[in-house]
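sry for the spam today, last one i promise. struct tokens for design, 95 residues
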């Protein structure tokens, strides 16, 4: 199981967004581990970037419009967090 701190991404460039009537600054994203049903989002997306944006939004409980405003380096770091949850290690056999 991952350490809770491993699930937190501190943004190098915090963003200020307006969601509804609320303006707020987002400086961290906290990820949860995906469930199998969450992976359907990838299959329903229009492309790789869209799938990644939707997965980040889903796993951080942030609206897509918040994720859309991430700087490129923060988006890449967030995408790495998502990939870390769903990548599998190659099976190893006996040596």
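last one done:
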């Amino acid at each position: 199981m991952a350490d809770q701190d491993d699930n937190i991404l501190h943004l190098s460039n915090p963003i200020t967004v307006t969601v509804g009537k609320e303006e707020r600054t987002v400086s961290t994203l906290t990820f949860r581990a995906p469930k199998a049903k969450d992976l359907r989002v990838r299959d329903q997306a229009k492309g790789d970037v869209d799938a990644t944006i939707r997965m980040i939004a889903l796993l951080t409980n942030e609206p897509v419009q918040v994720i859309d405003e991430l700087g490129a380096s923060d988006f890449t770091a967030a995408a790495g967090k998502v990939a870390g949850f769903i990548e599998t290690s190659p099976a190893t056999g006996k040596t």
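Helices lie at 40-44, 48-60, 64-68, 72-86. ok im logging off now
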